[in-house]
Amino acid sequence: MNLAAGTLLRVLLIEDNPIHVRLIGELLHGTKSPVFELVTAADLADGMARLREGGIDVVLLDLTLPDSQDLETFTRMRSQAPSVPIVIVTGQDDVKLAAKAVEAGAQDYLVKTQLQRASLTRSLRYAIERTRVRDAEWDSQMFRLAQRQFLKAAQLVGLDDNIRQRLLFPQRTLVVAFPFRRDDYTEVENVFGYRVQHLLTMGPTKGGVRYHQDVSLGEVSALAMWMTWKCALMHLPFGGAKGGVRIDPTGLSRHELQRLTRRYASEIISMIGPDKDIPAPDMGTDEQVMAWIMDTYSQQVGYSVPAVVTGKPVVLGGARGRNEATSRGLVFLIRETAQDMRLKLERSTAVIQGFGNVGSNTARFLDELGVKIIAVSDVSTAIYNPAGLSVPSLLKFVAEHRFLQGFPNGEALSNEQMLELRCDILVPAAMQNQITIENADRIDCKLLAEGANGPTTLEADEVLNQKGIYVLPDILANAGGVTVSYFEWVQDTQNYMWSLEEVNARLQKILVDALHRTRARSERDGIDMRTAALIEGIERVAEAKLARGLFP
Ligand code: NAD
């Protein structure tokens, strides 16, 4: 199931036989994931009029209607709304005709006499998902952002044209389509998975695995490119990679998550390995998912290979402190920057978007430093309390209820409203594309510390700069995760464990050094912190590429 659990999908059924209309209505009634709402029309003219009103996600079309027959019904319908997926419903005698409609661009056909709830709902979901994928695979807003950021920085440093062309796209991509069983053992889901390696020059590649319903090749490629700059900025011996599965993990049981993960791991097994490409957690995945990937890989090769993933449980060779390393690193950088800005943390306020791994741990660490957390959010809601939220109560509530919705000691806001609250420190730690030209002018913080990847668009960056907001850009701000992943990989390859104190001390040193280099470049060249951080990373990569030369 790639669409988010509980999504409402509006189906337009164009069918003149009331018996079939009733049957389809009954089959779609009461489904929960997604929820289908049926709109009906008895002839093509009525159907086209209904489509013009908008809001239709998919059309179920009978080709034989009172005012139109055969393939013409499909062609007319498609010309009306080329981007809306169409599934044909056909009688047993007209299957050949329906197959022709599929050749002409319909997503699927269903035989009326064989209709069942599972096959009908699955066909409709897949039709919608496939259409969305076709539109969005490479053409993702995030990939465009990553490319534009790179081009801006490349132009400023006069990057070699050949290197620029090479780095604009990932070096290797793998797209897999694979099935996994749902818990009732009769249903099989088919999903898309990705593993993208942006740069193989620096050593093995490194990057997280994301489970989210919006994952696409473009999104994963953007994240892989940012990993390249992040690793280079931190002086880690890795190139960037990223992986993902297009699925909403919140709708899966633990067993389903395990089957999905093991199958995904075995599909990408030729790409990964401790000397090749090392996955780690990202949105929607955690240390348990890493443990399953490690186990699947180890079963295949016949011995335990802890170093094939990082961010796994400590008992399997995970680094102490890896789970909260992204947030710990972010808070080291906030503390260092606050000093420069003469911002007294114990008198500061913070707003945090996202209450998963990065968001909740950032709240915890800022709280420990005396920062007043006035608002937090997750996918369900945002909670605001100007007097300050109790972070232990928030953590307890989410541990019990999974989401923040219903948390009693604060006012509920939308995520959009929350981002615009006046505060000293704003931490986006959820999704990309949150601070855009639409809301940048209303962002009211002194320091923007990007826990999330790609939360700010280029246009918004300019507005933030004009407003004098200090930005800790994502490739610097959230690099604590990959840095401790590097420690974990080093420890696993040497079979040697470090103490938490050692991990944190080394983390702080690497991050603060990168912060100082970035700030020095920003001040020296009169450029913003994001561009300075990108240039630090890009120049290191370019130097390595030139040193290696071109094969053959
Ligand atoms: P997570 O899955 O643990 O948590 C994500 C949080 O975001 C959840 O609270 C979820 O409810 C919330 N969320 C999802 N959609 C939302 C929406 N539309 N509006 C508001 N909140 C929403 O993920 P995570 O590991 O904390 O990752 C968060 C961000 O940090 C991502 O951008 C990720 O790429 C980045 N990041 C994570 C790590 C890491 O080590 N986990 C490292 C570097 C960067």
Describe this structure in words.
45% of the residues lie in helices and 17% in strands. With 552 residues, it is α/β, with parallel strands linked by helices. The longest helix is centred in the last third of the chain and has 26 residues, at 500-525. The chain is globular and about 75 Å long. The mean pLDDT is 95. It binds nicotinamide-adenine-dinucleotide (NAD). Nicotinamide-adenine-dinucleotide binds next to helix 12.
Question: Which keywords apply here?
Answer:
17 strands, 5-stranded parallel β-sheet, 552 residues, 7-stranded mixed β-sheet, alpha/beta, 19 helices, binds nicotinamide-adenine-dinucleotide, single chain
Map the helices and strands.
Elements (H helix, E strand, L loop, with lengths): L7 E7 L3 H11 L6 E7 L2 H9 L5 E5 L7 H11 L5 E5 L4 H9 L4 E4 L5 H20 L4 H17 L3 H7 L4 E10 L6 E10 L7 E8 L4 H17 L5 E8 L7 H14 L9 E5 L5 H15 L23 H17 L7 E5 L3 H12 L3 E6 L4 E3 L6 H11 L9 E3 L1 H5 L5 E4 L18 E3 L8 H9 L3 E3 L1 H4 L2 H15 L5 H26 L3 H20 L4
Parallel strand pairs: 1-2, 1-3, 3-4, 4-5, 8-9, 8-10, 11-12, 11-15, 15-16, 16-17
Antiparallel strand pairs: 6-7, 7-9, 12-13, 13-14
Helix pairs in contact: 3-4, 6-8, 6-19, 8-19, 9-10, 11-12, 11-17, 11-18, 17-18, 18-19
- Which structural class matches the secondary elements? alpha/beta
Output the strand order for the largest sheet.
14-13-12-11-15-16-17
Q: What gap, in angstroms, lies between the N and C termini?
A: 44 Å
Question: What would you call the shape?
Answer: globular
Which spans of ≥5 residues are poorly predicted at pLDDT below 50? none
**Total helical elements:** 19
On the 0 to 100 scale, the average pLDDT is: 95
| Strand count | 17
Major sheet? 7 strands, mixed
Spatial extent as radius of gyration: 25 Å
Helix content: 40-55%
Question: β content, as a range?
Answer: 15-25%
The unique ligands bound to this protein are:
nicotinamide-adenine-dinucleotide
